[in-house]
Amino acid sequence: HVSYQGAGHLFGMPPYLPATVTKARHPHTGAVYLAGGNPKDNAFAAADSWARILRFLEESFGQPG
Predict the structure, then answer these.
(1) pLDDT tens digits for 12-23?
(2) Residues 6+ positions from 62 with CB-CB distance below 8 Å
(3) What does the alpha-carbon distance between residue 8 and residue 6 come to, in Å, rounded to a whole number?
(4) Cα(42)–Cα(39) distance, integer angstroms
(5) Residue 24 phi/psi, 5° resolution?
(6) Is 33 in contact with 21 (CB distance < 8 Å)?
(7) DSSP letter for each residue of 17-47
(8) pLDDT in tens, 1-44
(9) I want to staple 41 with a disulfide (CB 3.0 to 4.6 A). Which of 6, 15, 23, 28 is the partner?
């Protein structure tokens, strides 16, 4: 488990998207969901967590071949 100070709930999924989105409107209900965090910490968390995910997958399953 890794916790990123200042990051919200939706950072980095999928990776390398803009980190400025901290809220979203549901397309059907119109409800606004607050994801929290701030752009700087979300961007760091997205990049760092994606590198950790790739490292875990490589260590667990090997390199793609």
Answers:
(1) 667 777 888 788
(2) none
(3) 7
(4) 5
(5) -145, 150
(6) no
(7) S-S---EEE-TTT--EEE----HHHHHHHHH
(8) 899 999 998 776 677 778 887 888 999 999 999 989 999 999 99
(9) 6
